[in-house]
Amino acid sequence: MSVDVTNGQRPHVEDYSKQVFGSGTEQVMEEAKTCGKILTVLSWMLVILTMPFSLLVCFKVVQEYERAVIFRLGRLLSGGAKGPGIFFILPCIDAYARVDLRTRTYDIPPQEVLTKDSVTVSVDAVVYYRVSNATVSIANVENAHHSTRLLAQTTLRNIMGQRPLHEILSERESISKHMKSLLDEATESWGINVERVEIKDVRLPVQLQRAMAAEAEAAREARAKVIAAEGEQKASRALREASEVIGDSPAALQLRYLQTLNTISAEKNSTIVFPLPIDMVTYFLQAKQNSQKDPF
Ligand SMILES: *[C@@H]1O[C@H](CO)[C@@H](O)[C@H](O)[C@H]1NC(C)=O
Ligand SMILES: *[C@@H]1O[C@H](CO)[C@@H](O)[C@H](O)[C@H]1NC(C)=O
């Protein structure tokens, strides 16, 4: 018997089983159901016959934060997960799995990531998640916790790889939110609810740290120079105004001269000051002015 898959459409599972097992499949299913019923009845009889002792095996307890997913003869029991508290299983034909519903914390180990602008950074994060649907977390995925953790790691790497460094440093909040929504979407089919993602630390390579520090220092120095230059400009204007005022009245210069002498005597009282008569200074000034007027 050949199965034609060249047209791109795979045969539906039921069609396939019909092709393989022939038209007797329905009959086989009916037989399986009847067999299951018989086994269930036998199991009940076993429980009743060994009454006081069978209770020890049949009654199970799960904690407030746990649920039990029960499989009877390999099929999920209708009514969803049982618990919290006491639940009942039949010996030999029931199997059950406990699922913890409490929030778990996963510390994503530091990941070396190449950002969009080709800088290698080391990023770590914390993910808080919990099982939201116990049945689905057992039936749909082999190990829901392990899968969620691996996915969290790869999602972190992907997101960081799509962004330039300055965004990673300045927009942690929005990156966390984006990552949470991506993770939540992917893990929904595993019965996992991602509650929170926090980017813990972004570590830069030492060389880059040095370069950034040098850049910041240079920027500060440039600003300081501008401020100093502006100060000089203002001071020179003020000095010019002062000199104009002094130039208007000769007595002002003399007063200023005496004032300077006074300052020196107060501050450096061990320095001996020999006062030069201001008249001599005026004489030199006048001589200079005359020579400028009449150079011959
Ligand atoms: C879990 O998922 C199953 C299948 O999607 C659904 O039937 C069931 O109601 C869900 N249980 C809860 C508690 O949401
Ligand atoms: C000289 O100045 C110092 C402090 O600057 C002061 O202690 C001292 O008394 C002063 N001497 C005189 C003679 O004023």
TrEMBL record:
Subcellular location: Membrane
Location (main, coarse): membrane
Name of the encoding gene: LOC108737389
Domain called Band: residue spans: 57-216
Record flagged with keyword Membrane: yes
Transmembrane segments: 38-62
Protein name according to UniProt: Band 7 protein AGAP004871
Record carries keyword Transmembrane helix: yes
GO CC annotations on file: plasma membrane
Pfam families given in the database record: Band_7
Family, per entry: Belongs to the band 7/mec-2 family.
Alphabetized InterPro entries for the sequence: Band-7_stomatin-like, Band_7, Band_7/SPFH_dom_sf, Stomatin_HflK_fam
Keywords recorded for this protein, A-Z: Membrane, Transmembrane, Transmembrane helix
